[in-house]
Specification:
alpha/beta, 4 domains, six-stranded mixed sheet, 42% helix
């Protein structure tokens, strides 16, 4: 009976020691991370590339900021680089086992994917389901029993073990000076290399051994004998506080490159999308309607290639392409990429119908010449123009009354002779026709509306 109790205590102690070792393995690593070291810590704990975690958080962040919430949750549950208690452990006053963090992330992502199905399947469902499926497949391929992990999650969360205490700072080394009495030596470990006549780290400066021998009463010979007996002495690798230097190991390429296969798979997916939509233009791939679906499928293709690269093939270059595709997916979801225009533009409308169409330029320099239009007396024409970043110049005929409304987040707006500059500009001016151009009441009216984020806007009369 006593032996059974002893065996039970030994098994419990072994389990606790194993869990403690696992908890020590999951830490945030800001020195190897981009923001807070969460992805670097998860990558090292799970034995995967941290880039995969970054892509997963960014991709799921496109759907109602789910990835941002998951990242914050992981940051709260992970301990710092020194092994101090996590924020969640301090708030709950209990230990959070390290193995529960990836399981909680998978469970939360599964719940978010299920909620996205309410109202039908949308592109957000694909964005959430792709990292979830790839992550579960990768964990299963690495020998993780998913059913066991999810079943053990409630029991692990119900534990009331106290959180770990913050690590105490280690005392700094105090090196022995042979000329200083022992009673005045500061507290801390003694560097034996100095006692042996060497400097900290194993390097022996000139004259140090002689000084140590004179201070210790002729002990240089004994020190030399002791060093000879040990064979290697106190080298840089054996000195206290000096870590062993390891040479970085280069990863060898295994098999064929997977990037060309992913490229041709993306090309095939592009052809399928164009055939399905009946649109054989760029709008079918990056437009606001079908662009997120296509780019999401390309992200899934790259993710599958990365997972396959863990066993066969060479996955080099896939992570960089995946980050670029994720950024393009964000841009396609936020704006119409096909409507972006950059460079220089010049418009010369000849009819009222041509002048009433919107003039838009994303970035660059634009010019609108309205002097070529044939305007009837008393006719009113509305002109709308927008430049996101850059400058725009509008030339109006001298016989027209011009009503100008210009807005700019930051820049300069000049209307004839008046000028305003600075942030949040909202200018309303009216330019009257000259007295020699006819009666003011019969003059045609040009209603010009200009807008810009950052740029210079100018409306002026045609020069004689």
């Amino acid at each position: 009976m006593e032996s059974m109790e002893t065996a039970g205590d030994t098994a419990a102690g072994g389990t606790a020691a194993g869990e403690a070792a696992a908890d020590e393995g999951l830490r945030r690593r800001p020195d190897a991370g981009v923001l807070t070291g969460v992805c670097a810590g998860l990558g090292r704990y799970t034995g995967t590339d941290p880039v995969l975690w970054r892509v997963a958080f960014c991709l799921t962040g496109l759907s109602a900021l789910v990835g941002v919430l998951l990242y914050v949750g992981a940051w709260l549950a992970m301990r710092d680089a020194q092994g101090g208690p996590a924020m969640a452990e301090q708030l709950l006053n209990r230990r959070v086992p390290a193995r529960t963090v990836p399981t909680l992330l998978a469970a939360a992502l599964a719940v978010a994917t299920a909620l996205s199905l309410v109202g039908g399947v949308a592109w957000g469902t694909l964005v959430l389901a792709a990292p979830l499926v790839l992550g579960l497949l990768t964990a299963h391929g690495r020998g993780v029993v998913l059913q066991k992990e999810f079943r053990a999650l409630p029991s692990l969360l119900r534990r009331h073990a106290p959180p770990p205490s913050a690590p105490e700072p280690e005392p700094g080394p105090a090196y022995y000076n042979p000329a200083q009495p022992w009673a005045q030596a500061p507290a801390g470990p003694i560097d034996l290399a100095v006692l042996g006549g060497g400097a900290p780290g194993g390097a022996v400066p000139p004259g140090a051994a002689e000084d140590a021998g004179a201070g210790a009463g002729g002990g240089t010979g004994a020190t030399a004998d002791n060093t000879a007996d040990t064979g290697t002495g106190t080298g840089a690798r054996d000195a206290p506080g000096c870590p062993e230097k390891r040479r970085p190991r280069r990863k060898r390429a295994r098999g064929a490159r997977l990037l060309p296969f992913a490229f041709w798979a993306a090309v095939a997916a592009a052809g399928g999308f164009m055939l399905a939509t009946g649109d054989f233009s760029l709008a079918a791939l990056v437009g606001p309607q079908t662009g997120p679906l296509y780019l999401g499928s390309v992200a899934v293709i790259i993710g599958l290639a990365l997972v396959a690269g863990a066993w066969v093939g060479d996955p080099r270059g896939l992570a960089v392409v995946g980050v670029l595709v994720a950024g393009l997916l964000v841009a396609a979801s936020a704006a119409d990429i096909t409507g972006l225009r950059f460079g220089e533009a010049e418009w010369r409308p000849r009819t009222v119908a041509e002048a009433q169409r919107p003039f838009e330029l994303t970035g660059g320099s634009a010019a609108i010449d309205l002097t070529g239009m044939e305007l009837e007396p008393g006719e009113e024409v509305a002109v709308r123009a927008k430049v996101g970043f850059g400058g725009m110049e509008v030339v109006v005929p001298p016989e027209a009354r011009v009503r100008v409304h210009g807005t700019s987040a930051f820049g300069e707006i000049r209307v004839d002779e008046s000028m305003r500059s600075g942030p949040r500009l909202d200018v309303r001016e009216t330019m009257e026709p000259g007295a020699a151009d006819g009666a003011a009441g019969d003059a045609p009216l040009l209603d010009v509306t200009l807008s810009s984020y950052v740029g210079d806007l100018e409306v002026r009369r045609e020069k004689a």
